[in-house]
Amino acid sequence: MESNFEAVDWHARRATLKLNNQAFIGGAYCSALSEATFNCISPVDGKEIAKVVACQQEDVDRAVASAREAFGRGLWAQAPARERKQRLLKFAELILAHQQELALLETLDMGKPITLSHEADIPGVVETLRWYAEAIDKVYDEIAPKKDNAFAMITREPIGVVAIVVPWNFPLLMAAWKFAPALAAGNSVILKPAEQAPLSAIRVAELAAMADIPEGVFSVLPGLGEVTGKALGLHPGVDSVAFTGSTEVGKLFLQYSGQSNMKSVSLECGGKSPNLVFADAKDLDRVARESVSGIFYNSGQVCSAVSRLVVESSIKDELMEKIIALTKNMPPQDPFLVQSQLGPLVDKVQMERVLGYIETGLKEGANILVGGKQALQQTGGYYIEPTIFDDVKNNMTIAQEEIFGPVLSVISFETEQEAVQIANDTIYGLSAAVWSQDISKAHRVAGAIRSGSVQINTFEGGDITVPFGGFKQSGFGRDRSLHALDKYSQLKTTWVAL
What we know:
Blueprint lengths: L9 H6 L7 E3 L2 E3 L6 E5 L6 E6 L3 H17 L7 H17 L1 H12 L3 H22 L6 E2 L6 E9 L2 E5 L5 H14 L3 E5 L6 H12 L7 E3 L4 H10 L5 E5 L2 H13 L4 E5 L5 E4 L6 H13 L11 E5 H16 L19 H16 L3 E4 L3 E2 L7 E2 L2 E4 L6 H4 L6 E7 L2 H9 L3 E2 L1 E5 L3 H10 L4 E4 L14 E2 L2 E2 L12 E9 L1
Parallel strand pairs: 7-8, 7-10, 8-9, 10-11, 12-13, 12-20, 13-18, 17-18, 20-21
Antiparallel strand pairs: 1-2, 3-4, 5-6, 6-24, 11-23, 14-17, 15-16, 19-22
């Protein structure tokens, strides 16, 4: 990775950015046939960045036709595994070579602090591509148990045309978690970035072409979710949709599948993750640090954020003193400053939504310990102070609904049974954490929590080697690990009589 990160004048570098606002179809940038656009606004200062192409039904038709033609020709789907591997590795190296540019686009477009964009997200994209590139020629087909007069082959084949619809909170990383395994499996991919943050995905499309990924195999369609996303979900030429976003929209994609061609759908949706801290937790300073990071990272705009701190009553005051001290030391700041830990929320709509939840929390009887207000209004951006609610009951709105902002709800418990009950009392089941020095108890509690992942004595564990996804209304299907390939391939049985 680039070593001069802290020496860069990121505001000056921002001024040199050249923005592309177009769709990428059939190996080339293009406008919408209707010439439709939408305004792309930076949450840093509330100013317009660009007018971005808004793809309509006819543009989706063009992209699907190009993707199907590419799949049918087999230049990618039937290419030798080592060839796809080398091209994806080249793709990764090109992204690394443009690390600064892509990080700037993400910070400008969605407000993520530049340190997170440059040092975490873009390196994560590179790692993901490299990992799936290296996996391509190491995933084997199967032979069924031998019979005297027959044998059977079980082969994994690409599913076809895959539409990938991703959120704005990790614009390129969430996309890579999907397009890397989808491409590795041999599919044609149509990426629909969120309209709030489309710029890095648009730029990456050209890098894919530079990596010799064939025309039609990787397209990018910016546009509005209710138009472009819906058109992809209903299109009979799309074989699979992989979606990350809200549970509400995830349910729409299930409807689109039933209304069209029964395309496969995988969903990674909302979360209301519990962070269970027992009185025998070993290191409350570490618990406090990771609890603060776990809710305020990316300004709380993380689906797996531990937004419910469920803490045993006997240590609550001690732990909260540490958490409040840390929270007061991380004010919202200009995200182009390397010391910034909290940037703005992605847009005005999201800021007003979060402020509305804060107002609701107060009305329902919770108390604010710190924060609760809009910040840096003079900038024109969409900043909110990191906010902590105490005296929260698990049936309150702020404890049940996904806020997707820098808001923590603190809930106390007395017994292990009560802690588990609170943890599971939600429609979601994406992630959770358990803190206890008693590993037997921690393991028992982790097993009782209905969640796609549970971390014990940390909330900073996990990497590309382990699956990520949810239970209940957090969705189904898994990103990361070899299990992600299951979403983008089909198993075929070939029975051979001898």
